[in-house]
Write a structure and sequence with these properties.
mainly alpha; single chain; about 110 residues
């Protein structure tokens, strides 16, 4: 598979992740939780696939990829906060967007 394929599927999976989180925040249907989990899996697979296609898997992960992996872990656990309504929806959505901004800027700018 090509780098472009991995990149497109990675972006679509991120959209699905946020849809799953938002659905879990506002309804109690299990399908949104499953969408969230499937999106997490696809994000991980396509992210590492894209790294391999770029030739960046030798000698450990670059720093910017580690940041993205950290954001992946945080957004993976965000479903528990959403389902338990531990924070107001506006606060949760703002935090999700900020974590998304960190991941995007890390991937685009590659500061380390």
């Amino acid at each position: 598979m090509s780098y472009e394929f991995y990149k497109i599927l990675h972006i679509v999976s991120v959209i699905a992740l946020f849809l799953g989180l938002a659905g879990s925040l506002y309804t109690s249907k299990k399908g949104y939780g499953m969408l969230h989990g499937l999106a997490l899996l696809l994000i991980l697979i396509t992210g590492f696939g894209a790294l391999a296609k770029m030739g960046l898997m030798q000698g450990g992960l670059p720093g910017w990829a580690m940041v993205k992996l950290g954001v992946w872990v945080i957004l993976g656990g965000a479903i528990a906060v959403a389902k338990r309504k531990m924070l107001p929806p506006s606060v949760q959505i703002t935090l999700w967007l900020l974590f998304g901004l960190v991941a995007i800027s890390s991937a685009v700018l590659k500061p380390f």
